[in-house]
Amino acid sequence: YRSVLVQIRERTEAVRAVIFSSPVNASDIEVAALNLRTMIELVALGSLVANRPEAERVASALHKKGWDEARKIARQVNPRYWPVPTRQVQVANGKFALARETRAYLTEADAAPAWGFLSSLLHAHNPFQEVADPEGTRRRVAAILEKTMILLAHHTLYLSHPDFVINAGMRMKPDGDVHVDLFKRTGKAGSPQESWDVVRARYDGET
Predict the structure, then answer these.
(1) 138: exposed, middle or buried (C-beta count within 10 Å: 0-12, 13-18, 19+)?
(2) How many other C-beta atoms are found inside a 10 Å radius of the C-beta of residue 119?
(3) Which of 108, 161, 186, 191 could form a disulfide with 82 if both were Cys (CB 3.0 to 4.6 A apart)?
């Protein structure tokens, strides 16, 4: 999963380099749209890292049929496939806990129209139709990027196996590394003995 987030981070920089340059033209927007659409696809594929056959089915659906079919497959495998954005909040005794992110982020419902809009930017336009305003398009692409980054800045990812969950962050460390912790449930779910233990921690650059 860390490698998925690293890919997303790299594409984020590519989108920023284009979207926040001036002036912006149609080919710049196409580059940004392609990278941002791929980022959204990687979000959908991320929770299936432990399910290779299903991940391949989702990837194939994205290439051949589109977002709606890919989402349908992902939800069949893991109804909770979409990341849950979180933030750290201070609790009693100076300790910290995770709470749900309150800023606007890219929801699963947002993904379909965002993916469709970005896809539309990658096709040749009818010469008889009015060309879209580049500045307005840039603002819309930038808004999708911002919501995607809020989604992934710190998030919880529920895997298809109910006893495993991932907590991950992008740019949590001062040097901007990607941080991924895999937790395993011990004890019966909902019982006083239930707890979650870290079984694997990965940072950018580690093997």
Answers:
(1) buried
(2) 14
(3) 108
